[in-house]
Design brief:
29% of the residues lie in helices and 28% in strands. The chain has 2 helices and 4 strands, in the order H-E-E-E-E-H. It has helices at residues 11-15, 64-86, and strands at residues 20-24, 27-34, 37-44, 56-61. It has a 4-stranded antiparallel beta sheet, with helices on one face.
Length: 97
């Protein structure tokens, strides 16, 4: 199973209060500057964040190191998601039929 590492825009992108979203095979995420930190959240499925359940969230320092920490955390999250999918298990624990 090939996992494409999550990459985030450069720090200046977030300094302008921009939000970044992305997806990889049913795994979806959002990263945004919030209260002097990076706030990252993850959800699964075909729907937008507002129509989905957030399954994981994490905050990171609002600096270049925190930006990289957020990208690394998201890559770990997508790897765990894809592992479950490859085993035939939906992320909520139910089996695919």
């Amino acid at each position: 199973m090939k996992i494409t590492p999550i990459t985030l825009p450069n720090f200046a992108y977030f300094e302008s209060d921009n939000v970044y979203t992305g997806s990889q095979r049913g795994f979806r995420f959002r990263v945004e500057p919030q209260n002097g930190q990076f706030a990252a959240c993850v959800w699964y499925g075909p729907y937008c964040q507002e129509k989905s359940e957030i399954v994981a969230s994490q905050t990171f320092p609002f600096d270049e190191s925190g930006r990289q920490q957020a990208a690394d955390w998201l890559t770990e999250q997508v790897a765990a998601y894809l592992q479950k999918v490859s085993e035939g298990t939906q992320p909520d624990g139910r089996r695919f039929y």
